[in-house]
Structure prediction request, 616 residues.
Amino acid sequence: MPRLEEDRARRALNVQWNLAEDYTRPLPRRVQKIFDRDRPLPPEDHFFYQNGLLGILQAHHDMDRLSAYVSYLMEEVSEGGVFVRMMAYPLEKGAGERLVASRPVFEHYRRRYWQDRLDQFRRIAPADEIELLDMAHGQRVLGQVPKINPLTLRLLNDLESLSDLSTPDFIEGMQKILKTNFHFNPTLKQKDKLKEKVLAPEKANHKRESLDFITDEEVFRQMNVVSAEFNENIFLDQSEKSYDGKDPSSSSVQPKSEVRRFMEKNYGPPILDPREEAHILKEAAQGIHKDQHFLMTRGFSFDSQEIREALDQMEEDPVPEESLYWHPELNKEGGDSLSYRQRLMRRARIDNEAYIRNNHRQVHRAITILTEKLRSAIKDEVAQGTIYEDHGRLDGAIVWRTPVLSDNKVFFNPSQDEPGELIVDILLDSSASQLDRKERVATQAYILVQALQRVKIPFRVTSFQSQQGYTILKLFHDYGDRTDPHEVLSYFPDAANRDGFALRLVKAGMMRRGQAKNVLIVLSDGKPLDQRVGINVHSFDPRKSYKEERAIQDSAEQVRLIRADRVAVFGLFTGLEEDLAAAKKIYGHGLAYIKDIDRFAEIVAGLLQDQIRELR
Prediction:
């Protein structure tokens, strides 16, 4: 160990021992691991605060029992890495407040520590639920009001409520929180382990006195699969982390089968059989997307009647926002609750339905305008494109031409391909960067599908998001479906995005028919990769990174290739003006920036009318 590290290690022990008033032994490594956040050599203020915190913690908690509980979670529970990190907030709150009360000088160190943490989040937004909790907890320490979603806030409240409890009560409280908020149902064997290792730690025979054998990559791997069960911004599929060009160890890469199970559990079962999926993957996963995978699903359905009842309840008798995340039937005594992500999906559906309801007149007007313009364009095109012959079905409207003009071509053949046939694909970017405008995007899609269905134009609606090397395609409506267009209001932004790969997948599955014209409309924020989600664990090779200019160029190339295959591609920009330049690079002349619902109908009608006229 370098001399500087040795000196700091001795000073750390002195600070801990002085505050713990126990010079017999160092703090167990298992407990110290809970608070490991910074570099090996943190700033001096952080150094004093962290070690003071550990000393106070040792003075007020049963370290053997707490260490045993950490060991139990890490060794017996697959999600242990996440749950151990969550223990930091109640322990820091209790120990931090005691530390400041007994040693007022530490108030400066505590505030400086959390101010620096929050400064990091101003530069790079929280990447996962743990970092959201970290940010919100720090804001409270500094007297600020956390701005996080109600479920995360409730989780933080539950955790911080344990701050003043004794060790046995703290452990019992953590168990209740895990059972309430997560799919945490210990087996009989795990319950026995809890009794053996935690409830009677003096009898336990711990084979390991350190958590050093648990690598950061393994903890990230657990968080990658499990914290995504309850967060909004889950991990990406490409890494920002540098490994000096060396390949990552096999322990840092999640087995594909496990990732696939996670995707299906959180986003829905597949709708393609393995052979169909392999065929599309072979065509789409090429070049920079060679190692990518995808899941096509219809997601999870929510009872329309129950959604309407929730909306009525909101109007008549407002209820706490977080209660809308829960499904009433599945949370009765003895029932099972929806997963965290399903609750967020359900809440998104309620939000989107409420937006439609609150803007009913505007939405209805936009649907009417778009429907009438499309109907008129199709009618004109059929009339102008019909080929008349001297046999077939008589057209009574022009039969006068025979006696007056001696023109016998007053018959048309109904077996011919009808001109004016359009096939439309709608692709919705549903990455986390769309979260703040999800209602607007869902409404635009809703207007489109309502109009297309009314004029009987075949269409397909799909959303896409990406994480951990997978692109998830959620199918709201297929070409031949007669389903309720309201299903598109289940639009739920989440995770990251990989636009180029999503475009390849949609193109590979397009329906092509005779002389029909295919049109692809992409509702996008212009970010081909959402980088606000910060931690990546799946690939550490910078040559495989998919971000910034490289992602823009790839997405633009995919658009060009689709257009070369006789498909009209239009981008409807839904993002911020700062990202407009990137969107222009991707979609070129086929980009429309639409800011309000009325304008949306007019612009989309014009785009589709032009495509119908091209069918002559």
Notes: The longest strand covers residues 459-467. The chain has three domains: 3-209, 304-358, 363-383+418-613. Residues 304-358 form one domain.
